[in-house]
Design goal:
binds zinc ion; 400 residues; 8-stranded parallel β-sheet; Cytosine deaminase; TIM Barrel; alpha/beta; hydrolase activity, acting on carbon-nitrogen (but not peptide) bonds, in cyclic amidines
């Protein structure tokens, strides 16, 4: 926690002001602030926003910084899962090293909060989690990392994975994950009952990958909604992707979105290029809290992506046919403050009393800042400068 005075910034694209951070929190915003014994930065008139938030990624999967991976395959979801599980060890994919690379790039690009799923399966047991827990510890104070214990290869179809998830949560994973309770686990009742049982036992929230399309996905989502209500877990349940809410059937999707909003279920979307995704504008209009995420970056699944939430926001914006400035402002909010809100963490924005986390962005307006491909001039976490002009400024930490 640090003190910092940043001169000449435009909070949320408004009038130029100075911003003072004391003990890691915003203490004052105003004209010509003075403070003694405080580090000073010149914002040079740049727009300031709350730090960016990657609310759905997989820090344990990236090959970033390694040699080019030539073994990517097409095929079904199951083919991609199997290819990755079999490739990890021959590839030498060291999770601590790779998650450091991935997270440090996110920090350099202005991200202050990350929710990362970690694979828990028979082959790797809890070793991937251990690597990521080390990364979370190494980067404490520079970025906050929530870890989701994620049964990537299935839960009910792989006896023993339930106990591994149980152990992962006891070891420090923050969130209970899940994967396609109907199409992957072939038993939505047993799968969801297990997930909610773990959440209740450990007092932790839930985030379920739901790729299931159409009516099957809608059925599974209804089961998630029913359990959220029955367990009184409003605000504690998230669904990632939720492609079924992207179905071109407003008579089915509209009421489902209303129920999702009523039970305060959070949706995490990545603008997936090869699927019908739920409309960000429609979800926000329905009152749903939505987070955006980069998902997998240059991993065994696919070659695409950058560890940069503005890069991802542009993909989500294109996918959602966004053109107007108000839509781009909504997009930027979902990639920053809104994502934090969806993850269940403080999301007050740039106001006195809020956490001293902010990112300066290039551009004349908030809308311009989304589309402008330029390094972030300054990234501040808890009043400490962690990156400058796209490069890390973390003493003692170098890119592995
Ligand atoms: Zn994912």
């Amino acid at each position: 926690m640090s003190d910092l005075l940043i001169r000449n910034i435009r909070p949320m694209g408004g009038a130029a002001a100075d911003l003072l951070i004391r003990d890691g929190r915003i203490a004052a915003i105003g004209a010509a602030l003075s403070a003694t014994g405080v580090a000073v930065e010149d914002g040079q008139g740049a727009i300031a926003i709350p730090t960016l938030v990657d609310a759905h990624t997989h820090l344990d999967k990236t090959t970033w910084g390694m040699g080019w991976y030539k073994g990517r395959k097409g095929g079904s979801l199951q083919d991609l899962i199997d290819n990755e599980r079999n490739a990890r060890i021959p590839l030498g994919l060291d999770v601590h090293r790779q998650s450091m690379r991935h997270a440090l790039q996110l920090i350099a690009n202005g991200t202050g909060h990350i929710r990362s799923h970690v694979d828990v399966d028979h082959d790797h047991k809890l070793t991937l989690l251990e690597g990521k827990l080390r990364t979370r510890e190494a980067l404490r104070g520079a970025v906050d990392i929530q870890i989701v214990a994620f049964p990537q290869s299935g839960l009910m179809i792989r006896p023993g994975v339930y106990d591994l998830l149980d152990e992962a949560l006891a070891m420090g994973a923050d969130v209970v994950g899940g994967l396609d309770p109907s199409s992957m686990d072939r038993d939505p009742k047993a799968s969801l009952d297990a997930i909610f049982r773990l959440a209740e036992k450990h007092g932790k929230p839930i985030d379920i990958h739901l790729h299931e399309y159409g009516e099957l996905g809608a059925f599974t989502l209804e089961e998630i909604i029913a359990r959220t209500r029955a367990h009184g877990m409003q605000g504690k349940v998230g669904v990632s992707h939720c492609f079924c809410l992207g179905a071109p059937n407003p008579h089915r999707v509209g009421p489902l979105m209303e129920q999702v909003a009523r039970e305060d279920i959070r949706i995490f979307t990545t603008g997936h290029p090869s699927a019908e995704v739920p409309s960000l504008q429609d979800m926000r209009a329905a009152g749903i809290k939505v987070g955006l995420g980069c998902d997998g970056i240059r991993d065994t699944w696919g070659p695409w992506g950058q560890p940069d939430m503005l890069h991802r926001a542009r993909i989500v914006g294109m996918k959602n046919r966004m053109r107007r400035d108000d839509e781009l402002e909504l997009l930027l909010d979902a990639a920053s403050r809104g994502g934090a809100e969806a993850m269940g963490i403080e999301a007050r924005g740039l106001v006195v009393g809020a956490a001293g986390d902010l990112t300066l962005v290039a551009g004349e307006t908030l809308a311009h800042a989304v589309v402008e491909e330029a390094p972030r001039p300054l990234v501040v976490k808890g009043g400490r400068v962690v990156a400058r002009n796209g490069s890390l400024a973390l003493a003692g930490i170098t890119m592995p």
